[in-house]
Amino acid sequence: xxxxxxxxxxxxxxxxxxxxxxxxxxxxxxxxxxxxxxxxxxxxxxxxxxxxxxxxxxxxxxxxxxxxxxxxxxxxxxxxxxxxxxxxxxxxxxxxxxxxxxxxxxxxxxxxxxxxxxxxxxxxxxxxxxxxxxxxxxxxxxxxxxxxxxxxxxxxxxxxxxxxxxxxxxxxxxxxxxxxxxxxxxxxxxxxxxxxxxxxxxxxxxxxxxxxxxxxxxxxxxxxxxxxxxxxxxxxxxxxxxxxxxxxxxxxxxxxxxxxxxxxxxxxxxxxxxxxxxxxxxxxxxxxxxxxxxxxxxxxxxxxxxxxxxxxxxxxxxxxxxxxxxxxxxxxxxxxxxxxxxxxxxxxxxxxxxxxxxxxx
Length: 361
Known about the structure:
The protein has helices spanning 16-21, 32-38, 88-99, 125-139, 176-187, 189-194, 205-209, 216-225, 238-265, 311-328, 341-348; strands at residues 2-3, 9-10, 44-49, 69-71, 74-76, 108-111, 114-119, 149-152, 155-157, 160-162, 167-169, 197-201, 230-234, 272-282, 285-294, 299-306, 333-337. By secondary structure, it is α+β, with helices and mostly antiparallel strands. A hairpin with a 2-residue loop joins strand 6 and strand 7 (114-119).
């Protein structure tokens, strides 16, 4: 149990093993930089915070037992979505995107449970706010009045201080290192969810984030990053670090020459292509991004627009389109770089899909 600033208590659970066993929900989260830029230059703002937002989403009955925890008074499980689950953020973002599909990018910005109503003209703010409140009431979503602010000219949104003229980051100095990790996990969320992450630092991050007496914003950050498989390692000795820095600084200029020499020395490897795939799915459809790179340095890019499909279907379609593109240019040996754990496991034969809609792939 972690005490909040207002004196209430937040219950924290360790879902590391459960998160490792769960497949990634690829629903895209908004880019924080774009959200911050979009909120600048508005005369009036209203900051809306859902009351224990994740807990307002019900768990499927067959999944409730997976959240079981033990106390000195007995064994319990969650009937609502708890904090700390790997796909909790994506599930919540999917909900609010559906709720405010006509307002997003116009009069409202939403990042998971952080909602902001913004108006270019203050005369329009009441009508826009009423429209958004009616939608919240329609879905039965409860708000936290202590964290809401209506009709103001400035305030904090996603850790940035917003006002009419500019926005700036607002973080206390002792928490800057912790905040850097949180921002990285948000911006690189697909990679954090697909792969184990090692954080190399000279600061005792784990001790700070997981100490029993944490509260407020730090406790919220701890729950947020606990969704990922993160380990903390001390930084290596200075001599090793200097060598690593040297390689990092000069590898950009050295690698093209090394690749050309390798291609000349080993002509058989010239048919080795690398295929990178990615996809974006939203209400308007799916877009597949392909990049083919050969050892000689040639790069081929292609973007494909597709009709509505699920995130997993888009991942499969991207790989198939990429393989067809590689065959078109005569590639015979291809290395696949993909951020979908589901696709990779099926390609390598370590996982067999059971969902009937995906079996055709």
